[in-house]
Amino acid sequence: MSSSDPKDANVFTISRASDFRDLCDRFGSADSQGPPTIDWPRVAETYHAVHLTFTGLILSQGVPVETRLGTMMLRGWDSESTAWLRLPPPSRLGRHFAPA
After folding, report:
1. Taking a C-beta distance cutoff of 8 angstroms, is the pair 45, 84 a contact?
2. How many CB atoms lie within 10 A of CB 82?
3. What is the pLDDT of residues 16-29, one digit of tens each?
4. Is the pLDDT of residue 3 over 60?
């Protein structure tokens, strides 16, 4: 199995509410059926992951931010964490088996 250096991953980091606003402004999506949301497949085209720091959690969770699409709010993250949207090459999930 091949491994990847984490430094090869392109990660968007949220350390404050303005970082979340930037993510929303770049990748926000709106329709007439509800509030604006983040278009995660579009985020995955640019970034391998989104990392919420502990400071970002404290400063951003539940804080309304004004974006180009209207007010958005970071919700549902309960600890410092990283949401992996795709693996950086040459990473793979699972075990690699050689053909018999």
Report:
1. no
2. 15
3. 999 999 999 999 99
4. no
CA–CA separation, 78 and 60 (whole Å):
11
Tokens for 95?
A: 């075990």
Q: Which residues of 41-56 are buried (b: 16+ CB within 10 A; e: fewer)?
A: eebbeebbbbbbbeeb
Q: Which two tokens stand for residue 94?
A: 């699972």
| DSSP assignments along 55-91, one per residue | HHHHHHBT-EEEETTEEEEB-S--SSEEEESSPPTT-
Q: What is the pTM of this model?
A: 0.80
